[in-house]
Design brief:
The chain is mainly β and 221 residues long. It folds into two domains: 2-27 and 102-211, Beta Barrel (M1 Pyruvate Kinase, Domain 3); 30-100, no CATH class. 13% of the residues lie in helices and 34% in strands. It contains three helices and 17 strands. The strands form four sheets. It has an eight-stranded mixed β-sheet with strand order 2-1-12-11-15-14-13-17. It has a three-stranded antiparallel β-sheet with strand order 4-3-16, with no helix packed on it. The longest helix is centred in the middle third of the chain and has 11 residues, at 76-86. The two termini are 18 Å apart.
């Protein structure tokens, strides 16, 4: 198995960027979801309620500052565009605490499960895609541990999917059948909620090993 893809989403619920290398910190991939959108009531706004947020593309510049469609996230033009989607009073805030994640800081998918899914993998918003996996083998990994590069990742459980999967990443067209299909064929769950056991660096094409609890791999358990 190997690292097939790496993804980062500098602004929560916006489209992200594909990477060749990622630094994995105790709170996930460095720069991931470090800016969030809040509505007029101060609550985090996500594409579950405001799917138009998926139409923005967020990246990091060379200084580690989030950009939205090429503009600094704090640019007034970005705020104006976000308010067109979320409404008056919306704002963008920077928060790098662990609470910025809905569940856990990493989402790991596999090429086998993505092939079974049969749709654009961006609908699932993974951080790491593991290649060389047969079919739905990822469903046997819960409670295991993943080794990639110098990082060690704890695998918790399968991710329950939400309405975000039903929006096309490019056109934003809504297709309710996507989520119904996930429920029908996969019990509503695809990809894995993960946490960071040991920070490190991960690169595309690096070897990946997955072990169950109590299994020793090269002296590590």
């Amino acid at each position: 198995m190997h690292v097939a893809e790496l993804w980062r989403y500098p602004v929560k619920s916006m489209a992200g960027e594909q990477l060749q290398m990622a630094r994995v910190t105790p709170t996930g991939i460095e720069g991931d979801r470090i800016v969030q959108v809040q509505n007029a009531r101060g609550r985090t706004a996500t594409s579950r309620t405001y799917p138009g947020l998926l139409g923005f593309k967020a990246t990091l510049d060379e200084r580690g500052e989030p950009l939205v469609d090429g503009l600094l996230w704090s640019d007034p033009a970005v705020l104006a565009a976000v308010r067109e989607v979320v409404g008056p009073g919306a704002r963008l805030v920077r928060d790098e605490s662990p609470s910025r994640f809905d569940i856990l800081p990493l989402l790991v998918a596999t090429d086998g499960a993505l092939a079974e899914f049969g749709r654009d993998r961006r609908r699932l918003r993974p951080n790491i895609v593991v290649g060389g996996v047969t079919g739905l083998d990822e469903r046997e990994w819960e409670g295991g541990r993943l080794f990639a590069g110098s990082a060690v990742i704890d695998i918790h459980d399968l991710r329950g999917r939400c309405i975000m999967t039903s929006f096309d990443p490019d056109t934003l067209a809504h297709d309710p059948e996507v989520l119904r299909d996930i429920v029908r064929r996969f019990g509503g769950k695809l990809a894995l909620n993960c946490d960071v056991a040991t920070p490190g660096e991960i690169r595309v094409n690096q070897e990946v090993a997955v072990v169950r609890p109590g299994t020793v791999l090269n002296g590590r358990s």
